Amino acid sequence: MKNHLPFGQENSIHELMTPDLQFSFQIVAAHKRTVNDQWSYPAHHHTMFELNMVLEGDQTMLADKSTFSQQEGDILFIPPGVLHSSSGSASKIAMTYFCLHFDIDDLTLRRSLMGMQTTLLPSDHPSAAAIRSTLERLLQRLQYAQTGLHMDKLAFLSDTFLMLSALTNWTLEEGSGEVHGKDASENEISLAATIERELRSAYASDRSTEDRFSIEKLAGRLGYSPAYCKRVFQRVYGMSPRQYLTGLIVRQAKLLLINPELTIENIAYQLGYRDVSQFSKQFKRWMNLSPAAFRKLTK
Q1: Same domain, 160 and 194
Q2: 126-155: average pLDDT
Q3: Which of 56, 74, 168, 174 is the most buried (most CB within 10 A)?
């Protein structure tokens, strides 16, 4: 539906507008677990940010080639791609922890979080107190997984935004709002930002699908090798250029599917797909739901 409202600028004296804000956020496999003194978890890495908080007992974590000893109330923040493992309790006692994986595609916050690197926040740390408070609230809302009640979901969403606020304030207080990715130079940060603008511009102008995107052509225009561009983008943002482009497409697809006036065929065309079956297969691969099933959930 087109918006035919006037801009309201006629006879205006002064105007101040905020920039548009649109981002996707997800929480994956959040869980509270109590384990015995023999428990451990093998080395692994993933594409998500992780918050790991010890609720009872103690835990020894190996992450980014460093050892972190967590006591009750301590939080370990782990960025994407970091190899990490847990050897369980050093005291050889039962231990309870809460682990939350999350991802966000807002690049301002994302690269600030990447700049924090792997960090242990002790229980008496001021920023840890704010983050721990939101995690404890989210723990109380885990019942939503069992109830599925509307009010429980709203409360979970509310606490999720509080967690985002606490994490943002942490980057502002501890990192001075720096946007540096791990081990990234100023030139690399500038290149990563240029690649991001080019990707966003290309997608906005011709609705490039994943299949039509070519990092080789983009790198050639910028005067760098494709491998170097991929490596720099990954270092600064913690995701590949293709993952970022996929995020743009998924976000737009979900927004269009919410609009009941658009057919799925029309949405597929707007997103640059040759036919609806190709779009449907791709959307199901992203969301584990067909476009029609996703649309039903939003009604």
Answers
A1: no
A2: 83
A3: 74
Parent domain of 275? 186-298
Task: State the average pLDDT for the chain.
Answer: 85
Cα Rg, the chain, nearest whole Å: 22
Within a domain: residue 98? Answer: yes
For 86, the token pair is 């847990």
Nearby residues of 285 by Cβ (< 8 Å), 6 or more positions away: none
Angle in degrees, 0-180, between the axes of helices 241-258 and 276-287, rounded to the nearest 10: 110
**Complete DSSP assignment for 216-263:** HHHHHHHTS-HHHHHHHHHHHHSS-HHHHHHHHHHHHHHHHHH-TTS-
3-state SS assignment for residue 21: coil
Together in a domain, 123 and 190: no
User: 107-116, 146-155, 254-263: lowest mean pLDDT where?
Assistant: 146-155
For residue 136, the SS3 value is helix
If one counts the domains in the chain, the total is 2
pTM of the predicted model as reported, rounded to 2 decimal places:
0.73
271 CB neighbour count, 10 Å cutoff: 19
CA 276 to chain centre: 28
Spatial distance between the Cα atoms of 155 and 147, rounded to a whole number of angstroms: 13
Statement to judge: residues 294 and 205 lie in one domain = yes
Question: How much of the chain exceeds pLDDT 70, in percent?
Answer: 89
Residues 78 and 199 in one domain: no
Query: Any idea of the CA torsion for 20, 161, 198, 195, to the nearest 10 degrees?
Result: 150
